[in-house]
Design a protein that fits this description.
Number of strands of chain A: 14
Number of domains of chain A: 2
Largest sheet of chain B: 21 strands, antiparallel
Structural class of chain A: alpha/beta
Oligomer: heterodimer
Mean pLDDT of chain A: 87
Distance between the termini of chain B: 75 Å
CATH topology of the largest domain in chain A: Rossmann fold
Strand content of chain A: 25-35%
Helix content of chain A: 25-40%
CATH architecture of the largest domain in chain A: 3-Layer(aba) Sandwich
Distance between the termini of chain A: 43 Å
Mean pLDDT of chain B: 89
Low-confidence stretches of chain B: 1-23, 55-60
CATH superfamily of the largest domain in chain A: von Willebrand factor, type A domain
Strand order of the largest sheet of chain A: 7-6-5-8-9-10
Helix content of chain B: under 10%
Number of strands of chain B: 33
Radius of gyration of chain A: 21 Å
Radius of gyration of chain B: 36 Å
Number of helices of chain A: 7
Low-confidence stretches of chain A: 12-19
Shape of chain A: globular
Strand content of chain B: 35-45%
Number of helices of chain B: 9
Order of helices and strands of chain A: HEEEEEHEEHHEHEHEHEEEE
């Protein structure tokens, strides 16, 4: 009988899947600065939240000490050992330092997104996979960030555990398979004005990705290890920051090889230190939520995601 | 697709439980982490991201799903233009503008039906762009009036509005009353000459060749004035057609190897605006362009510590003008529009072959990189300047000798009396070659956390320019000229002990070093310092400089531009006495000879910098630094370097310097009028010191800003701007660079407007989002202080000893300007 019931349940889920299931809860990443407040265990009752100005119930709070699944995505495509080797060493060091309740899934985005190791608490397995990876190819962050975002979103919807995405990238905007550089094709066309703003293509791509990430709830963190200062790269790096900001994540930039270890350390620390609040949606809210969260009777400074789209456009 | 995949997986799970062995085991409820991990596995399997999952199945459903691309059209058209009010008031209309720039880009996994299924790890990118453009070009010029063309100058006035008298050169005679101790004036004429009666040149005196040419010269079509000037308005269409394509392919061979290739071509045709609708058109020729590029790169990662990258690249660029044009000489009679043009036919091709191999190895705290490179350059050029002849006319022969505002160049043309004529004889194209080889080693050493040194050394070998068939020459400054027994004679490549390139191949050591130090122990503050030193080879230009003797130009110069023509105007110029190739040591005498520098000097550049970077809150980075750069042996042209200059001490000879023979006798190489250095003489020096502040703010709240301010001072001994004064003591010309701009501020910003998707205002999901999403404002601004004021005297009576005279500081007058504005 239980098996039959299981089958019926499966069939029912197959038939009744609506195109957009009604969302009743959302997950918001949040950071707290202590600012003299010594209380370290905040409960849902300590938070006050509104969505589009409507009071929203805080259903659950996951703290930095709680379980975290960190999806670590390697986008190391330059082949430059002066970047890659310090990055590899720093990654291994940070993995060794992670708390036991952090589970790391390892993926690779250069030359297409691929799972290398499923989320696990086994550090040796992750370290071995990192050491075996060849780190050259075509950059992949812009072509994979929405895909991994969807995966993380599904995990958040299935489980109250904290989930975060951390990209480790040294990608050059010129090293994508999709051409964002808009190169001059006809050098004899002296009246070409269309290439006076070479950053247009990458900005268009970022805008599209932003719209997609607006509905995803997992924060995205990016440790960028090879910052360049030309005009196109500036637009690319600004775009990465926009993408991370959209999900309330963060980007850490490394301007030289001396900063790589610190950059990766900051990336891990910021990803691991986030709270995850589950809010119940009030009955009447717009599809583009404005979020406001406070901790009454506390001096703590909050930073959190302030906007979230409930459905893709 | 995702929903279906998930449901299928659930069905499979359910079927397994339904038809399983039926053994009941107590099921442990998965915890939160396990549920999330299970979801991760399901999702990544559905997306085909797992090596152990249904990747192939998912991919085979729709192999084109990973293709992406764009289609575009950049449209410019005069229908979008407004008519400026002054044009509208004048009854005019818009200028023609039709421009369509269109193309596409498509990229993705390579799929060829029945051959490649899109899953072989091969990716392609294909871009095409075409341009179709028609633009009108407008010009307002001055041409002779109908009367002038027939010899009637009775109405012609000078710039002051006074009658411009045309004198008959056939009546020239010495003035018996001339007083040589006084300057020439109307009261003290050296030569007497009668004006044409009525200021009209008789029809029988008009040169027939000139008259034949004038049949191709247009008549005035407007009367803008003043004084009959600005009487030819031209509105001629220019067409630009181009087609180009870039194809890229990359393929991964396992995890360790990657091959990529790129092929590109572009063909362009510029139909230049015609000034005249016939062979006498003085405007530019039609121009065809072609570029071809191919590259192949192989990356081999032998281990996580060793990467080898090998590349081979070939580029070719060609340009061609005047193909199919009928020959016509150039007649120059300023200020009127000339007839014909220089370089009417040309064909140039530049090919470059580059092979590079670089290997990177990590050993402990050292990252070593060794790169070998070999580059072969080819320039094939055919570029005769005046194959049909060149005739320049001046007012001198129709003037009253020694008196300004008399005579006219066009009147001299009508009489067939040029002051200068030249014809180029280019028998064959030149095929120039040179090469560059280098081996560079760089060690990136991390002494400790936050302190990294980088030391590099590049060993480079430059070969001089050679010609494939040794058809190049120079003036050998050590060889004795048989005509006057002085040093300096024509020498041909590979003959009489000369090397093929006239200068040796050279080996250069180019060191570099840098350090990056996190002085506060964190990454917020970084101190950087760097130094580098390098040489650049003397480049090869298009053009047939340095082939004198194999090619030639016959020149005809008036012995006195006011008294005698260079040669009578005729259909053809007299042919050279010596046939080509003419490699006699004195074959280049009495010309401006091509001089190839035979030393081992090459441009040397050095730079050093010190920068302190500090990361501030709000995604802001501030950099403060100082930079030095300097160079010597920079390549100069004839106005900044002149090995055949007359020493300034010769100014003591005063008016005697105006005597051409005496003047020439003072030159180090008197058998030559001068040297053509073709911007390739290595003698210049410069130094630039700068301090700068840079502020970068990455995007937050939609705003990103970058600001750069620099204060600098650049000095050199060559930039002029009118040339240098003392070729023998270059230190006297060490001064502010002509384009030195001591202060410079650059700003760039981008602000995403707070409207549309994921923004606080005007967020819509319906059709309105197409109009409101993605708006941003961005811009750049640049402010700079002005360049130095350069003064030169209008009057230069140094007999050509000093071509760029500086003005003297007047005692008691402050040379610093208190208000250096345009009103000065």
């Amino acid at each position: 009988m239980p098996r039959l019931f299981h089958l019926l349940l499966c069939l029912a889920s197959l038939v009744a899947s609506p195109p957009h299931a009604r969302i009743t809860r959302i997950r918001i990443p949040l950071w707290l600065e202590t600012n003299g407040d010594s209380r370290d265990e905040l409960t849902p009752k300590d938070f006050s939240a509104t969505l589009d100005g409507e009071p929203a119930r805080v259903v659950d709070v996951k703290r930095p000490e709680d379980d975290l699944i960190l999806l670590l995505v390697l986008d190391l495509s330059s082949g430059d050992l002066t970047v890659l080797d310090p990055a590899r060493q720093a990654l291994i060091a940070e993995l060794r330092k992670l708390p036991a309740r952090t589970y790391v899934g390892l993926l690779r985005s250069q030359d297409g997104l691929q799972v290398l190791v499923d989320p696990t608490a086994d550090r040796d397995k992750i370290v071995a996979a990192i050491e075996q990876q060849s780190m050259s190819g075509k950059a992949g962050l812009l072509t994979t960030v929405d895909v991994i975002g969807r995966v993380a979103d599904s995990m958040l919807k299935k489980s109250p555990v904290r989930v975060a995405i951390l990209y480790i990238t040294d990608g050059d905007v010129r090293n994508y398979r999709e051409d964002f550089t808009n190169p001059v094709i006809n050098s004899s066309d002296f009246n070409d004005m269309s290439r006076r703003f070479p950053e247009t293509l990458v900005q268009e791509k970022i805008a599209k990705l932003e719209a997609g990430l607006a509905v995803q709830q997992a924060p995205i963190f990016i440790a960028e290890l090879n910052s360049r200062t030309d005009r196109l790269s500036e637009a690319y790096l600004n775009g990465l920051k926009q993408l991370a900001d959209t999900t309330a994540g963060a980007v850490v930039f490394s301007r030289s090889s001396t900063e790589i270890a610190d950059t990766i350390q900051k990336g891990f620390a910021t990803a691991a230190s986030h709270y995850s609040l589950t809010l119940a949606l009030p009955d009447h809210v717009s599809a583009r939520l404005q979020i406001h969260i406070t901790v009454p009777e506390s001096k703590r400074i909050l930073s959190y995601r302030t906007r979230l789209a409930l459905h893709p456009r | 697709m995702r929903a279906v995949g998930r449901s299928l997986l659930l069905v499979v799970c359910a079927m397994a439980s339904l038809f399983g062995d039926g053994e009941q085991k107590p099921a442990r409820q998965p915890n939160d982490v396990e549920r999330a991990i299970e979801e991760f596995k399901i999702e990544t399997a559905n997306l085909g991201l797992r090596a152990d999952g249904p990747r192939k199945v998912a991919a085979s459903v729709n192999p084109l799903r990973d293709w992406h691309g764009r289609l575009y059209e950049n449209f410019r058209n005069d229908s979008l233009d407004a008519i400026p009010h002054e044009i509208r008031q004048g009854g005019g209309n818009k200028a023609l503008l039709r421009r369509n720039q269109f193309g596409f880009n498509v990229a993705g996994p390579l799929m060829i039906p029945k051959l490649m299924h899109g899953k072989s790890g091969t990716y392609f990118s294909l871009s095409y762009e075409g341009v179709r453009e028609h633009v009108s070009r407008t010009y307002l010029r001055t041409i002779p009036t109908s009367s002038e063309r027939t010899g009637d100058w009775s109405h012609v006035v000078d710039q002051a509005g006074n009658l411009l008298t045309i004198f008959d050169p056939a009546t020239t005679r010495p003035n018996p009353g001339y007083d040589a101790s006084k300057p020439v004036s109307l009261d003290n004429l050296q030569f007497l000459r009668d004006a044409f009666p009525g200021n009209i040149i008789p029809a029988e005196r008009l040169n027939q060749v000139a008259q034949n040419a004038l049949a191709l010269y247009p008549q005035p079509n407007v009367a803008v004035g003043p004084f009959f000037r600005n009487n030819f308005f031209l509105n001629s269409p220019e067409a630009n057609t181009a087609n180009g394509m870039i194809a890229k392919l990359d393929h991964s061979i396992g995890e360790r190897q990657r091959i990529s290739t790129e092929l590109a071509f572009s063909d362009g045709l510029l139909n230049a605006a015609n000034w005249f609708p016939n062979i006498a058109n003085p405007g530019p020729s039609d121009h065809t362009f072609g570029t071809r590029r191919g590259s192949l790169e192989h990356v081999l990662t032998t281990s996580s510590q060793t990467v080898n990258t090998a590349t081979f690249e070939v580029t070719s660029g060609s340009s061609r003008t005047g193909a199919g044009d009928q020959p016509f000489p150039e007649y120059q009679f300023g200020p009127y529009l000339p007839m014909g043009r220089a370089y009417p036919v040309s064909k140039n091709v530049r090919n470059t072959y580059v092979w590079t191999d670089g290997i990177s190895v990590r050993r402990g705290k050292h990252s070593l990189r060794v790169v070998g490179e070999y580059v072969h350059y080819e320039v094939n050029t055919f570029w005769p300047q005046y194959p049909e002849g060149f005739f320049r006319f001046s007012p001198g022969l129709t003037s009253l000798p020694g008196i300004v505002d008399t005579g006219h160049a066009f009147a001299s043309f009508l009489l067939g009396l040029p002051e200068y004529a030249e014809q180029s004889f280019v028998l064959s194209p030149s095929y120039f070659r040179r090469s560059y080889a280098s081996l560079s080693m760089n060690d990136h050493y991390e002494l400790r956390k936050g302190l990294v040194f980088s030391i590099g050394l590049n060993i480079a070998r430059h070969t001089p320019r050679v010609e494939k068939y040794d058809r190049q020459s120079t003036v050998d400054l050590q060889r004795i000229n048989p005509v006057n027994g002085r040093e300096g004679a024509l020498a041909a490549a590979g003959q009489d002990g000369e090397s093929r390139g006239f200068r040796p191949a050279v080996l250069r050591l180019e060191p570099s070093a840098s350090v990056a130090w996190n002085i506060t122990g964190d990454s917020r503050t970084v101190l950087r310092a760097g130094y580098s030193r390098g040489y650049s080879a003397i480049p090869m230009y298009s053009g047939q400089w340095g082939t004198q003797g194999f090619n030639g130009y016959e020149t005809f110069i008036s012995p006195n531009v006011q008294l005698a023509p260079a040669v009578p105007l005729a259909e053809t110029l007299p042919q050279p006495v010596h046939s080509l190739p003419d490699l006699r040591p004195d074959a280049a005498n009495d010309t401006i000879a091509d001089l190839v520098d035979a030393s081992t000097r090459e441009p040397l550049y050095q730079s050093a910098s010190l920068t302190l970077e500090r990361e501030l809150p709000g995604s802001m980075v501030v950099s403060v630094g100082a930079a030095y750069s300097g160079g010597r042996n920079l390549l100069l042209s004839g106005d900044a370097a002149n090995p055949n200059a007359i020493p300034p001490a010769a100014l003591r000879f005063r008016d005697k310097l105006n005597d051409e023979d005496f003047n020439r006798s003072l030159r180090p190489y008197p058998q030559y009028k001068g040297f053509d250095l073709y911007s390739s003489y290595p003698l210049g020096r410069y130094q630039r010191d700068a301090g700068f502040v840079r502020v970068e703010k990455r995007a937050s709240m939609g705003l990103s800003v970058s600001a750069y301010y620099e204060f600098s001072k650049q000095m050199d001994d060559y930039s002029g701007p009118y040339g240098i004064q003392d070729f023998f003591n270059r230190g006297n010309d060490w001064s502010l660079t002509a384009y030195n701009q001591p202060q410079r501020l650059q700003l760039s910003y981008s602000y995403e407007l707070p409207v549309g998707a994921n923004k606080p205002f005007l967020t819509f999901s319906d059709w309105r989002h197409y109009f409101l999403d993605g708006w941003s404002v961005s811009g750049t601004a640049s402010l700079a202080s002005g360049t130095p004021v350069a003064l030169r005297p209008e009057f230069n009576n140094t007999g050509g000893v000093i071509t760029a005279l500086n003005v003297n500081v007047v005692p008691g007058v402050n040379p610093e300007l208190s208000n250096p504005g345009p009103s000065l």
